[in-house]
């Protein structure tokens, strides 16, 4: 929305400003661009080649596991946890958010929803 409004202002006011101050109008475009470049260079961290977990940790969020850069033991623990989660998904006991229990047999499927209070 802000970019749209800025574009609209420049399109409407640009010809008038260019007529009154001629070539100096380009400073209206150059100066904010310069400050934006400085801001991005110093304030926005590099995220190229980083995992989502590392990026979340860099922005202060708690991360359950750091798979990249993890030791072999930690990777093995993660793989075991994934296998256990897949077993639960296949048996239909508990879904991912833990709120719904699905009971299935050969003849009929019943879904029971548990609400957290």
TrEMBL record:
It is a multi-pass membrane protein. One of its GO terms (cellular component) is membrane. InterPro entries: MFS_sugar_transport-like, MFS_Sugar_Transporters, MFS_trans_sf. The chain crosses the membrane at residues 25-44. Keywords: Membrane, Transmembrane, Transmembrane helix. GO terms for molecular function: carbohydrate:proton symporter activity. Pfam families: Sugar_tr. It is found in: Membrane. This is Major facilitator superfamily (MFS) profile domain-containing protein. It comes from Saxophila tyrrhenica.
């Amino acid at each position: 929305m802000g970019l749209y409004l800025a574009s609209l202002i420049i399109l409407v006011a640009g010809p008038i400003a260019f007529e009154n101050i001629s070539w100096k109008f380009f400073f209206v475009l150059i100066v904010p661009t310069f400050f934006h470049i400085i801001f991005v260079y110093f304030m926005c961290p590099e995220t190229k080649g980083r995992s989502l977990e590392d990026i979340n940790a860099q922005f202060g969020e708690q991360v359950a596991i750091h798979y990249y850069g993890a030791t072999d033991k930690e990777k093995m623990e993660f793989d075991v946890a994934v296998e256990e989660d897949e077993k639960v998904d296949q048996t239909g006991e508990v879904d991912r958010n833990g709120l719904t229990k699905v009971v299935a047999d050969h003849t009929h499927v019943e879904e029971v929803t548990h609400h957290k209070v």
